[in-house]
# Entry
Amino acid sequence: MARARAEQQPATGTTLIVMVGLSIAFLLFMAFLNVVKSGPVLNEANLLYAALIFYAGAGALYLGFGVTATESYIKFASLATWAGLLANTGAVVHRWYEAGHPPFASLYEMLLSFVWTLAALTLVAEKRYGVKVIGTVTMPVAIVGVVLMQLLRSDVKPLVPALQSTWLHVHVTLAMLAYAACALSFALAMMFLIQDKMKTETFLAGTSLFTVGLYAAILTRFEKWGGLSVIAWDAENKSEVFLSRGVRLFVTIPDLGWMMLVVLAAVAAPLVLYLAARLKKDEGFLATANRAVFVSILLQTLALVFFVLRARDGQYPSLDADGLYPTTLAASPFILTGLVTAIFASLLYLLLLWRREDLEKLLPDSEALDRITYKTICIAFPLLTLMIAAGAYWANRAWGSYWNWDPKETWAAITWLVYAGYLHMRITRGWRGRRAAYFAILGFAVVMFTFFGVTYLLPGLHAYA
Amino acid sequence: MALSFREISRNIWQTLSSIKTGVVLIIMVVILSAAGTVILQRPMTDAEDMQRAYSPQMLRILDATGLTDVFHTRWFVSLLILVSISIIAASVQRFPNAWRYYARPYKSPDETFRRILATKAQIPITDEERALSAADRALEELGFRPERIVRREGFSLFAERHRISEMAVYIVHTSLLLIFLGGIVDALYGWRGFLMLTPGTESAQVSVRNGTIRTLPFSIRCDGTGEETYSDGTPKRWWSKLAIVENGREVTRKEIVVNDPLVHAGIRFYQASYGSTGKLDHVLLTATPSTGTTRQPQEISLAPGQTVTLDSDTSVELAEFIPDYVVQDGHVYARSREVVNPAVRMVVTSRKTSRSVNFWLPEIPGIAENAASPYVFKPKDLKMGYYTGLQVSHEPGQWAVWSGVILMGLGLTCVFYIVHIRLWVVPVLDESGQMMLWVGGTANRNRDAFEQKFRKLIGRVQSELQPQETEAFEEQSTLFAGK
# Structure
């Protein structure tokens, strides 16, 4: 079925490139017309918008490659990424200047820095390591990042006393670099598994398991009678609604809980079918499983659309207070990120399913990927160490103690231990290949938990990010 | 057959120093730490929240096993100590070998070594001495400093770089142990507490984390404290002017802010918070005589309980301050402690008539006797009292921790970026009796990059040798030509 589909759409290389180029030019022109009426052209919002346009173009070309395997797309996608990075750098500089401090103080600013790092790393991976396809992964993430930024409050937030320290910049910069290196090692480990001829079905099971995990996390907000509880939003003050110090008000969006439950079943179906195929030794189940992935993507998109629509308009009741309260997408960044990531992971699986041979031709061989993964972790590990050390020193100056066993600190230490484990197993035990790749993937899973899971699921002192 | 003491102790040593033990211990640390982040921990969470989160039976089990304060239980600390011992044991077991490797460089490779070495090459030569000098030059060009080794059969060359790299791993582990040591010292001998001071007060008592009061060998005095806010009210800067008084003498003075503590005798004072004491500091008022003279209104400042003389006859005292007043049944009550609806009662006394009048601001109808007062007061400003919250800590072990961190930085740099390279050049005879220059090398890391360097070296040696061959050829050709 996948093959027939590919033959049905033989888009020629130049058509898409020209189309993307024209769209970029058109959008920029329209934006310019709009902007030239109102104030300075090169302000942060406009630069960010330009970056979005370029990243969207790059993403379209990378994904276009994913569908049609035309190599020339990659070259133009690179160019678009460069242009986007330039605009993004302008936005960062502008923000830095306006705020008087590097962009690390709020979620908006962190996203700005993160998107910049993603674009920079994409180009580094292409130039230095020769991994040209990495844009298919990083550009869509960058686009999501910029879109998320448009939804969040962007006024320059003044720094509270504890954040007014150079050590903040040192610690957060190191954290971003370390996490980015870990993300890169994860992508490389995945590519290794592709080149190591890991069966596509195993990727199916893995993707399905991952998306099940994401939806299970979202469903921790399942409320009695089928609603989904989200944080209420005070539109006037542009902040979350607090019942008392540190206690947020939750409202329940009705029926959304049931919808998420249905989608959970849909994303679990491929995994169940895969297990059935293994148990019954019947390959037919696998074909159904692949179709199930496709169906689940449609349902996931539906769930996302519903979530966005419901979150943006409407007043909802709360179990903790009287009256109806509005909410907004900015109040649920993690749910939004989870939904988008799940769709994205499923799409990447389809890319693998339909274009595996072409990917295998474009990627370096498995030995090279194994070595590059190791080298990337050799960069990530010292960065992680320095990040923890800088954080400890800063905590000592701000709060009087360098280690509090705070959940974020503890999980950062666990992350460090896992990567130390990887290095030990590799250096002392000679672990290579598959085992090393699994370890690298485990390491990144722990990084993701440290970064998202701790803030979303566990409380603590690290309330800033 | 019973195991002898020696055998038992050897078994214990083997287990302690094995990597498997290390891995198992670390996995246990990870699981317990993760549990400590998921289960609510005691000092950080209020007792009420704990009771709300867990059922009474569950809470009893969690408390009994220590899972509600994982990181301070004896068995967690013992686990960390066991990890340290395992690192020490593993290092001690492997160190002698590594040290022998480090202290006694292998400069002259024998035949077996030459045969099994992976990275090697053989270059045909004609003259041993020329070949060695050519190799010498090539090595120097690549940044090495070759050494001439005397062998039974002649000379050979040996060059190496960054031997310290062999010790790198021990540097990293030592640094880790140093950090652990610092942590343990702080856990045993360090303490942390809190101290609240209002401007003008001095104290030597700190309420420590575990509930006790600790008396410092000196006292700390607050000479002033303040807060700067941004336009939207969020705090921008908290500052305190502090002075240390020891044996009655002022020893140090510092204005501290968040992120910039005051340190004295190993004890650190951090600006942690700032707040209102809820008590009035003083009110600023203007006082005008009520019976019209043309005298200018006086500006006076009244602190609670303070009396100010207005003229030869009248004085006023600040008798009562209510932050949030409400009137009920003809009495004035305080509704809350927040400064929402402040009211001030002053007693104006006339010496002549020895009459006291209660002057209320604002003028509360039915209670205030403002009309009868010889002076009329108008409020100008209300200044509440503020305190500065200081975090106090004594962490003697932190120097071990910071030195450990720096050492670890150096160690990791060594481990990842400093490579121990060894190169040998030996003139040999191959099977057919032809003279060859055997070149071999090793690197303890980044072997693929080393292979490239080695190829470059061979190329260099060959190009250094070539002019000699060309010379020899030219000599021969001139010989022929000259004929």
Chain A is about 75% helix and 5% strand. Strands of chain A lie at 222-223, 227-231, 233-234, 239-240, 242-244, 247-248, 250-253, 315-317, 324-326. Chain A touches chain B at residues 158, 160-162, 164-165, 167, 371, 378, 381-382, 385-386, 389, 392-394, 396-403, 405, 407, 410-411, 413-414, 417-418, 421, 424, 428-429, 454, 458, 460 (CB under 8 Å).
